[in-house]
Amino acid sequence: MQSQDVAPRQAPAATGPVDLEQAEAALVEHYPRLVRIAYLVLPPGLGRSRRVLTAHSLAQRALPRGRKQLSAVPARTAGRDTDPGYACLRERVLRAALEAARPRKGLARLAPLPPLLPQVWGLRLFPRSGGADELALDQRLSALSGPARAAYVLRGLERLPDPDVHRILGAAGVDDPGGALAAANSVPAQHALLSSPEFDPCSLQARPTDLMRRRQHTKAALAAAAALAVCGTLALLPGGGWGPDGAAAPAYAENPSAQAALDPGRLTRVPPTAWESAARTDFSAWPARGPLTGDEALLRRALAVWARPGETVHVSATPGTQTGGPAGPPQLLYAGEVDNARVVILYDGLRIARYAEPRDGTQGAALDFARVDGASGAEASALVLGRSDGNVRYLTAPWVTRAAARDLTKPASAATALAVTDGITAPLASPALQPGSCTSWTVLQLTDASGTRLSTDLGELVPAHLTAGRPGSAGEASGTEALRSWAPFACSLAAERSAGIRSVNAWGYAEQPLPDGSGSGDWVCTRAETWRGEGTAALAQFHTPGGAAGAVVAKGTDVPACGPRDPHVLAGVLWKSAGGHWYLLAAGSRDTASIRATGGVTASGRGALLAARAEQGARADLKGTLADGRSITGLR
How far is C-alpha 20 from the geometric centre of its chain's CA atoms? Predict the structure, then answer.
């Protein structure tokens, strides 16, 4: 699920009661922000999946029952004002979240029941994992009381001055707002991180609950109840730093193969020069690098968390990637410190697993997976080591001789050399972390004995390989002509973030003279291939002279068009000339013999190009005939 979290719109300060309709409109408009506030204030001990559902429940129950009016909550007295309906709902959400975070006594100490609604059976939902900075901030916030977390959130996310925060906390039932503000000062001001996907309970990942336990429940209900009781007892034990297995869940499988996979002494370690004589240039030839490859305690924690991630572990995976433990001892690729985290990267022949834990030794960890079966050459030349402050740092293959950063939107600009130390690149701007409008797209340029290749960070562990040319005979995107082809369409790569992309090819399949004689438009098809095979996306794009970027005019998902199996494509667009006339422009690949348009525009023509007068907003269906007599339709 995706959400758009926007700041509340400006409105006059509240001067009277807020009616139910006004509050309901505010809830619909600002729902993502209200849920984010609830998620941040709720106690982290609930677990990420439980916090998500509880946060949604609190926001959805913020409206009172019946038709009564809400008492007005004064809006901000300094700076920009807020919608009074939103201010009322924010106060009610804060009050409910603080009630959930308040310490309990006696029988009330028992864990509260899950919210009645919403409920999701058979799935665990949690926000996408962020970087080391977000993980560290989450750990610091977990050490605060509920009122102190609320003070930090109101300051950082809502940008409220302290007097307003003091007033709102008092209205929400906090006994000592001043103490809450003082306690919030103990956490460094990293307010921009509060808007990251790490803390967005409306943009979620889904994973199944423990399938094995679910199957065994009907046959061994008593044994499952005993296991849950043991797990609950362990969860209530006081924390004392990292245990032998770190943030892993309690062990429930004891067999020789599982134990061998958890033994750091059995990790596969490739010698530093093995790649020089290896038959394949893939991840199996990578040596173990990093200053912590000898830290058995760290490696044991990484393996244990991989096999049994606990409730405090942030787990993410590219689509189609299994998250279960390794079948046997995996290969160690890296162990060391990156930014504010200790990082371990492992490879089991099919997947890359990246384990990260806070450097300060606090509880909690992140575990990320990427599918890499069949990766070789350019696809096995780099891995994402870490992201922070809008930058990404890569671990490169041992056969890489030079690394550089290049802006894909500026083909004439020279690449900027990157320093590489023990295979680790200096930080470069990550387009996966680029907010707002796209003005540049920085890619990684790697050179080895085979040539120069380009890859781009799309928010996953393995960067996507960029190519250019006709499907089936495409080449590297690093050449002069290929760079010019990619430049107007670089920003369209944003549509492929976090989709499990293996490679993206740009194919300039047609050039069409514009009807008003102002030049020629370029037709390009970009096709993104995934690691799992399904989910491929083909985009037909059109670029006119003088335009900064191309426009996506058609999209096909899981279609062979524009790919090696079917190197053909047909697409059209409504185009307005400088004189104000509208035209239907359509183009097919070079072996298209004729094109016919029906529906809102009726026209036909010989060859691979078609231009016909049209009305604004007209919709047309396209059909083409190839030179061999086969029919094709417009990309969709």
Answer: 36
Count of beta carbons in the 10 Å neighbourhood of residue 621: 14
Cα torsion through 448, 527, 127, 119, rounded to 10: -150
Q: Measuring CA to CA, which residue among 390, 448, 394, 383 is closest to residue 418?
A: 394
Token pair of 188 as six digits: 């460094």
pLDDT of amino acid 52: 86
pLDDT computed for residue 109 by the predictor:
40
Q: How many CB atoms lie within 10 A of CB 471?
A: 23
Please state whether the peptide bond connecting residue 118 to the residue before it is cis, i.e. omega within 30 degrees of 0. yes
582-588 vs 592-599, strand pairing mode: unpaired
**Rounded distance between C-alpha atoms, residue 231 and residue 88, angstroms:** 40
∠ CA 331-335-340, nearest 5°, is: 145
Residue ranges of the chain with per-residue pLDDT less than 70: 1-18, 65-82, 103-117, 119-122, 124, 126, 129-130, 206-243, 248-258, 435-436
Sign for the pseudo-dihedral over CA of 4, 6, 8, 9: negative
Report the distance separating Cα 143 and Cα 45, nearest Å: 10
- Residue located via tokens 């989709």: 499
Q: Which residue is listed with tokens 């106060």?
A: 91
Q: Rounded to an integer, what distance in angstroms lies between the CA atom of residue 263 and that of residue 585?
A: 63
Tokens of 482: 């290929």
In whole angstroms, give the CA distance from residue 170 to residue 172: 5
Q: What is the dihedral of CA 122, 126, 131, 133, to 10 degrees?
A: -140
d(CA 353, CA 317): 9
Max Cα distance, the chain (Å)? 84
With 0-12 / 13-18 / 19 or more C-beta atoms within 10 angstroms meaning exposed / middle / buried, residue 72 is middle
Task: Indicate the SS3 state at residue 246.
Answer: coil
587 close to 509: Cβ distance less than 8 angstroms: yes
Q: Which residues contact 408 (CB under 8 A, 6 or more apart)?
A: 441, 442, 443, 454, 456, 466, 483, 486, 487, 490
Q: What is the pLDDT of residue 13?
A: 40
What's the count of helices (H) and strands (E) in the chain, helices before strands? 12, 29
According to DSSP H, which parts of 221-292 are helical?
221-236, 256-261
**Residue pair 422/293 in contact by the 8 Å Cβ criterion:** no
**Could you tell me the CA-to-CA distances from 249 to 127, 182, 361 in Å, in that order?**
20, 35, 17
Whole-number Å distance between alpha carbons of 255 and 105: 42
Tokens for 199?
């803390």
Do the beta carbons of residue 506 and residue 470 sit within 8 Å? no
CA-closest candidate to residue 395, choices 440, 335, 342: 335
- Distance of alpha carbon 66 from alpha carbon 530, whole angstroms: 50
DSSP 329-363: --EEEEEEEETTEEEEEEE-SSEEEEEEEETT--S
